[in-house]
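TODO from last week: model Multifunctional fusion protein.
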Amino acid sequence: MADHRPLAVIIGMPGAGKTRVGQLAAHMLDVGFKDADVEIEKEVGMRIPEYFRHYGEAAFRVVEARIIARLIESFDGLLALGGGAPMTLSTQRVLTRYVQRGGRLIYLEADPAEARSRAAHGGHRPMLAGDAGNRWNELFAMRDPVFKQLANLSVRTHGSTPTVAARKLKNAIVERTIHVTGSDIEPYDVRVGQGVLDGLAEVLGPEVVRVGLIHTTPVQRHSDQVRAMLRRSGYEVTDIVVPDAEKGKTVAVASGVWKRLGDEGFTRSDAIVGVGGGAATDLAGFVAATWMRGIRYANCPTSLLAMVDASTGGKTGINTDEGKNLVGSFYTPAGVLADLRTLQSLPNDIFTEGLGEVAKSGFIRDTEILRILDDNAVALRGFDGSGFFGTALEDVVGELIERTVRVKAYHVSNDLRESGLREFLNYGHTLAHAIEVIERFRWRHGNAVAIGCVYAAELSQILGHLSQHDVDLHRSLLSSLGLPISWNGGTWDEVLALMHKDKKTRGNTLRFIILDSIGHPMTIENPPAEALEEAFRRIRQ
């Protein structure tokens, strides 16, 4: 394969605006733009309608396929294809290979009435000869399913001006997409980037009628945006405000939401959307999993912690007096939209607590995360959402989110129901959950995880698996990010009792995730009591 490939390839129906919108998006991205039809006309020395008249469609498709194949190997900007190009089998194979090697094939979905009107008035379209409107409809019926199958991204431009549509296209091109799949999983995407909330209707689909919008008061500006977007897309929206943070993850709150859904007549064809931090998305997933034994849901996380942890992976749950997340289910979302724009309103302390889960993913698998955190610790610790965009930190945060989600996706795809591999994601969580219960959930989850990781590292060292250098790495990195590394609340007896209620415990057998080395977790059963207590003593300094 050649080193060059298009930044993105745009497909769509006649009149969708592929050329106009593509040119504007290319300008925004400061990259080149080419229209395959223009390139064809240059090569054959005549306009496409004239070529059709002289040689016919079959001959044109051969030339078109050859030129598209060449452009995909040689051009590195935005490339727009003619409306019928993806229907040629050889071009389909070229586009499929392009996607398989990481290319972005974007289906520009315009409102059919708008596109049909533009195409009919534009003229010079041989495939629309005769009754242009009816012919457009016939082509749409044939092409739309093929376009949706080929494309790995879509941009819905219904009612958008060319500039707004171009901005949506630009955002789709620069977004990061993590595909989550597995033997027990209905595949879904985690999309990370500016403007990904614009794809919510695409995630929910056309069959949904009612949407229960679950959110907290602190994210009102984001829930207002989502509500307006849902209503513009034709959905009936039931607004459900729940308490913030862990106060929203209770049986009483869930029961209140169930009552609202019943009063509003929610059926199995309806959906739930969770907007907010980790607690809100946990609750939304739990409600969706339990209402009528499971309805469609999507998560729109607005905090770093929710983006990298709670909204992804299909673990839903609520808290009880006995412990955290002891009541819940495994139920995967239809999609997760982590819109970086929502981080603009995130307070510094809530941003930095999310770094606890990010660092954990570095400790257990992707050690590049640790290097990125270390190199950017000062900037991350000083995060200011109001001045976030347009700085180098934006790309850093985007990459950290993508890498952390990929770590989670790896474990989830291979073990949805936490029977083995997925347990490694709980590194640091055994103590963290105990801290949260003892502190009556006043502690932020990411902060508790940071201390839990230090505890697990100390336990690993005591048991002879981890070097003192690696324990010191835990302490120095986490503290440089503004995260706590010690805790003086509670007693050892209280903590031990809660550890026996941990989800990894089997009967009376205590099980812990420790490290054999950085990036290599392992499970240990019933470690010596004196080792557990000594590790606890070391975090109380």
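Done. The mean pLDDT is 89.
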